[in-house]
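re: ur question from yesterday

yeah so i grabbed the chain u mentioned. its 112 aa long if i counted rite. heres the sequnce exactly as i have it in my notes:
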Amino acid sequence: QVQVVESGGGLVQAGESLSLSCTVSGHVSSVYARGWFRQAPGKEREFVAGIGWDDGNPFYENSVKDRFTVSRDKAKNTIYLQMNSLKPEGTAVYYCNVDNYWGQGTQVTVSS
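ran it thru and got these C-alpha cells back, copy pasting raw so excuse formatting
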C-alpha cells in the first residue's frame, strides 16, 4: 500500500521562505516523476514543481521557477520543495503526487 505524506506547511509573511517535505512509503515505480501541486481557495489544483525520480531533473511552473527549488533524497524516499520569496498568491494547500497517489496536503499561508 502506497502512502504519501507531506509536512512543513505553515504561516509566513510575504518575502519569507518555507520548506515542504513529502515522503512516500510503499512501492512506486521509479519511472514516475514526483511532484508538487497546490490548490488555492476557489481555484483548481495546479502544478508547481516536479522532479524525475531516477535522473533527478527538476521542472517548474513558470511563475515559481526562480524562487522555488525541488529536490530529492532517494535514501529517504523523500522530495522537498524549498520556497523562497513567497507571495500572498502562494497561499494554498500544497499536495504531493506520484503516479495516481496523492498526499493529504499541507496548508501554506502567506500574509501580506
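noticed a couple things. The chain is about 0% helix and 55% strand. also The mean pLDDT is 97.
anyway ttyl
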